[in-house]
């Protein structure tokens, strides 16, 4: 029973990762792990679009992560905007959003 539930959970996570990778430039419920430009001094923004705008204003920024109000964890403060100089394989992380600096599909959240 436990093994079956574990396999189902793993499959669901893999499906979410595949779906996230298929988005052109915007990710929802995903963390983009990468070197963070503002690691020790993160910005707070009201929306994902504001976070993207900050990325566009920062020369070395190519991608960004934003912590939405739907985030229920305790690791990141809500509304935190992380500016990234690169990205690697997206990780499923409920309540986080991210994308590239020039994405046009960023919702006004």
- What share of the residues lie within helices? 25-40%
Strand content: 25-35%
Q: Strands of the biggest beta sheet: in what spatial order?
A: 1-5-3-4-2
The parts where pLDDT drops under 50 for at least 5 residues are 5-9, 11-23
Counting helices, strands and paired strands, the structural category is alpha+beta
The CATH topology annotation reads as: Hepatocyte Growth Factor
| 3D shape | globular
CATH level-four homologous superfamily name: Hepatocyte Growth Factor
* Helix and strand element order: HEEHEEE
Radius of gyration, rounded? 14 Å
Total count of helical runs of at least 4 residues? 2
- CATH 2nd-level architecture: 3-Layer(bba) Sandwich
- What gap, in angstroms, lies between the N and C termini? 39 Å
Broad CATH class: Alpha Beta
Mean pLDDT: 82
* Structure summary, number of beta strands: 5
Q: What is the total number of structural domains?
A: 1
Organism: Tigriopus californicus
Protein name: Apple domain-containing protein
Signal peptide: 1-20
Domain Apple: 44-83
Highlighted features:
109 residues, alpha+beta, Hepatocyte Growth Factor, five-stranded antiparallel β-sheet, Pan_app, Apple domain-containing protein, signal
């Amino acid at each position: 029973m436990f093994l079956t539930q574990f396999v189902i959970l793993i499959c669901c996570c893999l499906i979410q990762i595949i779906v996230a990778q298929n988005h052109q430039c915007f990710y929802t419920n995903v963390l983009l792990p990468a070197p963070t430009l503002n690691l020790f001094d993160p910005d707070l923004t009201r929306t994902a679009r504001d976070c993207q705008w900050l990325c566009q204003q920062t020369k070395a920024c190519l991608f960004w992560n934003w912590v939405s109000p739907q985030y229920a964890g305790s690791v990141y403060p809500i509304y935190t905007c992380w500016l990234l100089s690169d990205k690697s394989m997206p990780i499923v992380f409920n309540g986080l959003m991210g994308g590239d600096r020039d994405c046009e599909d960023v919702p006004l959240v």
